[in-house]
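Marked as duplicate of an earlier ticket. Keeping the data here for the record.
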Amino acid sequence: MHESNLWAAWTLRSHDVLTAALPDGLGLRDAAALTLVESHPECSVDWLLARIGLTQSGTVRLIDRLESLGYLTRARAGRAVRLTLLPAGRDVLRQWNEAREAAGDEALRGLSPSQRAELNVLLGQALRRTERLRVDADTTCRLCDWTACTECPVAESVEQT
């Protein structure tokens, strides 16, 4: 077995399972934007832009689409534009989190409970040992259910500057 092949195959399998679990009409960046806005109420467009991996115009188009679907709203607050998730956005985000959980179960179904626990420990260690800035940690966790993670290894990896 070649380590990088295993890692690449696992990563692509995980991506494929996650993508298949998305609610109709949403892409991974849509789910990430909804997740980030929900986890950081009243965040600004600029804050989201730094975490979503799009250009400014791409982020604005993403927000336009999510707003037209009734998932979020934006309002000017001084010089910033603040984003707020609407009830329909919370509903689709809840659906996404449930589907993401099922996708995780699907991706890990070949492992026993003890193997899954061991994998969680190893992944947690790897995530903790990658020092990163807060913005990069938020980017890493952009598809996470933030309320479900009580001991986040990514948060523990944030450089204290």
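See parent ticket for discussion. The first helix runs from residue 3 to 21.
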